[in-house]
């Protein structure tokens, strides 16, 4: 069982890398969804004697991350008529190297971090930390508003895996709350992206760096 | 002592079968009958009886290239274990020698190509070396990940240490290593996603263009050396995916040879279902292999 859990963790890390390397937005959405589903399977394998509550919870997570989020995001992508490329600020090889370095650093950190005895599967902490880092990478280096949402989703995946390292039972309530937050965030972002794209013809965040009301107009403003 | 020698000669004799198997599998997917499985043997026989032609611009480097290449491959095969049985030349640290012998063969081929003075050959040499920059670290780190699993720095030691139990406990590492080795195997042997062995269009050739000017026995050396390289790198993969050893030497050897044929068939399937990548995309593929190797090494180191 632990070997299976480790294989899942390897899959999570490989999905991180492929998200960092993927050039297409649709592929990124699918990869994030796959990562969410795979990570949701982890509590079923990590603990001995899975209670029925956990199974229901896992099913809810799989439904939300595997079906509803990708559906919302794809809908937003299609409605906003986003071009297919993710348009990263840094190149794909650089992204991969950054992710690998993050994983190496995370596995070093994982050996230093004092954890409770309940951590049953090795590599949970490095995997979660590197997933969180990948989320930040997606947030910072991709120019589209949709990838910002994707970054949050990936960070949430990382936090979810990290929660498993600490307890198996306790964080379900916390996780529920986070999940609800993320759900609302994805929902709101979907609507926002749609409105932004209708207003400005693009959702490039690099162009959205100035607030219109903040800077006084050059001609004929007050002073 | 005799058995390791028999293993060695079996590898030498059977290696030219692998390109034949790959061609037959590709022909099957294409709905053709294909060339005979033994075609490479006929070709080698024919080429060995021809008189080589040398250009006036070439020097001894051009003649030495194929010979050094083949000699390096013969040494590589002598280091490799056969179906989990140690080779007759295994010693501590031989995996480093293996990597450098492959590098030496590449250097000899590249120098011979540059020696012709042809622009196309120089271009092929440049591409070959550029891809090697990515493929060699991936290969070396994959071997390092295997060595870290126990068995020291000797290939025979590593693979005799690799048991089905290792696959149960360290399957993530071994899966990553196998994937990485397979990509390196395709790249090093200039098979399809990286290079097309059938193409003879000047602008797209990588390995083929470097050996265009060789003829007669020299070309036979190169073709035979390529078959040996295919066998050598395939044998590493076969040793990883075939950890179970029965008591009997015959059964082990038979299973190993079947695994080699299986790998050749897998190459044929890969070549049939996908085209080659754009030249600019090839480093990405090799970086994927490098990534797999690094991940495997990190996992193995933290174990």
Can you summarize the main beta sheet of chain B? none
Helix content of chain B: over 70%
Number of separate strands of chain A: 0
Uncertain spans of chain A = none
The domain tally of chain A reads 1
By secondary-structure content and strand pairing, the structural class of chain A works out as mainly alpha
Number of strands of chain B: 0
Low-confidence stretches of chain B: none
How many H/I helices of chain A? Answer: 7
- Quaternary arrangement of the chains shown? heterodimer
How many structural domains can be distinguished in the coordinates of chain B? 1
Q: How can the largest sheet of chain A be summarized?
A: none
What proportion of the residues of chain B form beta strands (DSSP E)?
Answer: under 5%
Task: Briefly characterize the structure.
The complex is a heterodimer of chains A (223) and B (303). Chain A is mainly α. Chain A has seven helices and no strands.
Could you please describe the fold and organization of this structure?
- The complex is a heterodimer of chains A (223) and B (303).
- Chain A has 223 residues and is mainly alpha-helical.
- Chain A has one domain (2-81, 91-208).
- Chain A has helices at 2-21, 25-46, 52-79, 92-112, 124-141, 145-166, 171-200.
- In chain A, α2 (25-46) packs antiparallel against α3, α2 (25-46) packs parallel to α6 (145-166) and α4 (92-112) runs antiparallel to α5 (124-141).
- Chain A is globular and about 55 Å long.
- The termini of chain A are far apart.
- By secondary structure, chain B is an all-alpha fold.
- Chain B has one domain (2-301).
- Chain B is 71% helix and 0% strand.
- Chain B contains 13 helices and no strands.
- In chain B, α6 (119-148) runs antiparallel to α9 and α9 (171-188) packs antiparallel against α11.
- The longest helix of chain B is centred in the middle third of the chain and has 30 residues, at 119-148.
- The two termini of chain B are 36 Å apart.
- The chains are: A mainly alpha (223), B mainly alpha (303).
